UniProtKB/TrEMBL annotation:
PANTHER family assigned to the protein according to its UniProt record, in alphabetical order: TRANSMEMBRANE PROTEIN, TRANSMEMBRANE PROTEIN 245
GO cellular component: membrane
Gene source species: Vibrio brasiliensis LMG 20546
Main subcellular location: membrane
Name this protein carries in UniProt: Permease
Keywords carried by this UniProt record: Membrane, Transmembrane, Transmembrane helix
Amino acid sequence: MSDKIKITSSHWVLVIALLAAAFACFLLVEPYINSIVMAFIISLLMFPIHEWIERKLPKHKNTVSLLSCIVLTFIIVFPLLFVFAAIVQQGSAFSQNVYQWVTHGGIQTIFEHPWVVKSLSLVNTYLPFDTIEPQEIAQKVAQFATSFGSNLVGISAKILGDATNFLMDFFLMLFVLFFLLRDHDKIISAIRHILPLSRSQEDKLLDEVEQVAKSAVMGSFLTAIAQGFAGGIGMWLAGFPGLFWGTMMGFASFIPVVGTALIWIPAAIYLFLTGDTTWAIFLTVWSVAVVGSIDNLLRPFLMQGSAGMNTLMIFFSLLGGLHLFGLIGLIYGPIIFAVTMVLFNIYEEEFQGFLDQQDRS
């Protein structure tokens, strides 16, 4: 008996209706899609812990899933609260120190440095800008230092004001995560049943999505944490607020091409111009050799082996995902590329005979 199914017009009507209904469902959940995707990603990362708890309580699936969500809450919420409080405290202290430094003539010392005098002279002579006066720059820096503290407080207030939205998204993610962990086997079985692929093709597709989702989180976010930690140590040793600037370097690491250099280059220049040449050299060497090597070595290592994606493809998947979806695109981009590569490999396998015949013709 042939396993082929005869496609009738009623089948096409059913497929079109199903696609339309699926699209309507997507529109319904689209405002919450990031929470759902993050729940899916975190369920993959949390599954080893969930399995360990499940072995201790094999007959209590609801309790096990609830305990896993509680563990995740402690892992995420409390460190974030600590870091946020420290950032506000160190950021405010930094803005006050900068204001004191400017008003007590610190910036004048920099403008009297021979290199700065020569650079300003070249700029005023050859570049088509208005004349740059050191006094105007000093005023701008003082204004920035004054507004930085108030802006930081304002940003903090806005973050606290948006806490309701954050908590809603977070608890929505936990709600979805609870069911993903509890009904993991049922969900995977349903996906396998619906996909019109062979078991080996399903394994390849699902395994690749899982691997890339994990590697995207590990490659992007763990690299940012590692760079922020290493950068914070370097900045602290050089005399800057370590936790504050380490956090800033962690966020800067998400910026393609520029990355953490956006933070440590101005800091090294400041140290050099204020006479701390040794610390300027130290910060530069530390940032290039230690912080930079983390990005060059850790990220490719964590994201290697993803559907045959080379370093160039990984770079563009991250860059394109960040541009198209924002920060969550660091996960979406690699997944989209990986699924495309897997589907291309399945296509190549399914049409291998035809493709080989085309090559011989």
